[in-house]
């Protein structure tokens, strides 16, 4: 099944919701206006449609393969990644000084969606490099930057994030990997890391691991964790590769999905034969015991990217389902509009499923696009207050982009299977792969519960609900526009949006008011709070889409597209956003029944 | 992971909600009182826990295997099925005249849940035999009954249902398989059937296929379909096996889950070497051109059974998740109740997930138990009116048991993966298998949309909403009891139940009122109508559970269990049932946005 990048929808969001014209007014983004954006996206679409997407099924059927410490990736992956690097895609958002193109995240996020939609398993490799690049840009010493950044930015080498250990997943306080200071200022790292995405592979000659570990004597818990760069091969002064470092892949996991993406168990410092060990040579990134701060920056970047993966796989599943629904002839339309069996896309329930898939995908895409622009303004706006406001907004949106887009992606991919009927359950159809692939998204880079904890604690309670209420105020402004718009569609959206926003405001009051006195009650509703907030923000962006579409319809630009945008916004309001008040009531009044059962009663 | 049958919950439902005492007053069920039921369930639990459950993982890792027309099942399956047959479990509900035990469905449904929870892939074989038995009991000639029934009832042979063809899935009007009358009264069958569960295997020496086909000259569409019995081996007058019939397994499918259950493509009448063909010898079951009537009886039985599969796999996923949540230590409780990292079952969001899994499972189990009793009364009650009322109730509940329990099972199994975090995505953990296995349930034996069409057309509109409104009236009676009960728990449940029932009544008015004038609008909401009805009925049964539990608590019988029953009912009301009013609003007012987009706009 080919993949067709949804350029029209992406550009609609970037132009009208995210506001690329504003982005292009930011220092150093002057060339990143709509025309450049369109050109970049079109080029990106061609590459991903033609080169990357055709390898998606192969990755599932011939997964990465482990033998004797080495991982062989799916045939074709190495070549596609080389083309990706040669095309400059890894450096899209990174400084020209290191070989990047210096484009805004507003553009980069759309490009990332295409890559993940084309082939999520392959795309994970550059996604992890991205996180490593961000960490080094922010906290790396000049020496580390000089040695590693250009190699990563140009896709010659790749990066990884090493957090998880068998006993330390969501709970990083339990990390045991240790780092011993050496006389030359480097460290020797010892320990076992699991679930390391592309921790070993054959797509690049060197792999740059960013590793959380404890220095001897560090404080217990998360305040004693430091971040280290540990290369697979040590690097000589002339940038050539030196000795093999003492980090070894001992196995890869057999997973439900993303099978082509090798998930490695890495052993550090075990005295691997032929290596520079015992002890893996590592270099401190930032300050001792403050590794988590840097890691959080990497994680914010990676969490946003995982949210984009959700949107990407939802889009791919949607396209697959639409194609099948157009093709499969089965059953007469219930409204008697045809005498013979018709393509199932004409059946109301199939339309309902496809509309649900479409509305979720477009809503989350719009939310992510707006978040990306906040990121750009947070980093580049000349005014400090504006930077700060945008940073706060971006950081509020990250757990939503991650948590909400991924939860919806599992639902969308599952609906994609359902549209296919019995054929959806047969692996060769391909619909099931999206569900299996999507199922990791609500788990890695912090489960939905971890995102919800972040949304509650750091993003809502810490500022007394300021950002949350500012969003509600902006939603009210959109309501006022809808009220002035007239027409059934705008009124239906207004009614649902207003009810959701009012219910949401009560939840924010509850969360802010009770977090310190009744934390158990607040956290009993943390995930529902995240989901309700995600629904509100995505629904709000679609409401804005409707206003834009109605305005442009009046001037006759691309009528069918604008009409579809209107219908999709209304569908979202009437069938998805309308769930918010009941969820809000569950959160505010229903905590007791969540936690009442003692552990032994389950 | 061992499976422990939830005997206490099953017996609670059977005693207090289904009312086994009433069942035991029905003719021929006099011996099936609570004590017998308990004894049968305990024996059934031992067998499934000890013999069947241990083969579940093996079935996933070493699926059934096809070569040269033959299917080899997972090692151990053949022996386990032989023990199942020897234990008399296949005949539990069938007439003693054919070797059965003549027990009510109220008991049989609980036993079926255990078998499916223990090993859904294995359990599919006897489930399909069950459907074949029902068809023969109802419509088979004396000769067919004499030749085949005892063999099937005693589990010596197995049965299949052959409906689907490549072009005919949900739409049986498109069936092309043809049957040619022979001078001796038999037929010769020609055609290709796909998705035939246990269509070929090595667990029994003969397989009895029930096959939909057209006789030459039959009317087009579903009114020209007849049902035939086609044995794998012809049967001699002395019951020994004769010639190989001309039906051949040409392949089995590579599926997302239930991998041990072979899903066969069967070729009828192709002149298989060594067979009695060309033409597969078949025998008419019932009357020509009325095969669909019989098939619907089989399907009702099979659909109920698939709903039970949903409950079963949800229970198994729940048990797996609870065990992991007790064991996995990660993170401090947010309420500060402990200073160190604790088992994750103490975290509010993990409790929320486990409570969701538990409440769905118990709610659907209660609904299925009550439906089974309606089936028993429909068939055995001495009073014709009572039989008719119970039949109407049972037939209304079948699409709910099938459609709702299976939709919830996918959600529950997915939550089970989520509770496991990263480990849930690793296949060796076993949590992912439940999700993969469960994902077929909303598809086969009629997708959720097909169930919803049935609920709307045949079960709601045809009788002008009579059964639906009778259920609403019974819910009101439960509300009155809750109002009289007092206490926070009963009041919380009352509030949610009342709101759901009132919203439901409006939906019924809409469905009944608009089905002929606005069928497109009604069917745009058919699946939401099914899901809302399922939530209401399951929530109502849990409300009844709460009343029973409060009464028994007062007399001090098993306090912790009754307390848990109360909390679970309240959780369901506050976090699941409370969604009904918004869904009702979507159905009544939101149809336009479901169907507005033309097919080409997707």
TrEMBL record, chains A, B:
Q: Where is the Acyl-CoA dehydrogenase/oxidase N-terminal domain?
A: 37-156
Acyl-CoA oxidase/dehydrogenase middle domain sequence ranges: 161-267
Residues in Acyl-CoA dehydrogenase/oxidase C-terminal domain copies: 289-456
Its keywords, alphabetically, are: FAD, Flavoprotein, Oxidoreductase
Task: Provide the cofactor list for this protein.
Answer: FAD
Q: Name one Pfam family in it.
A: Acyl-CoA_dh_N
Functional summary from the UniProt entry: Involved in the assimilation of dimethylsulphoniopropionate (DMSP), an important compound in the fixation of carbon in marine phytoplankton, by mediating the conversion of 3-(methylthio)propanoyl-CoA (MMPA-CoA) to 3-(methylthio)acryloyl-CoA (MTA-CoA).
The record's listing under PANTHER family reads:
ACYL-COA DEHYDROGENASE (PTHR42803), BROAD-SPECIFICITY LINEAR ACYL-COA DEHYDROGENASE FADE5 (PTHR42803:SF1)
State what protein this is by name. Answer: 3-methylmercaptopropionyl-CoA dehydrogenase
Q: Which organism is it from?
A: Pseudorhodoferax soli
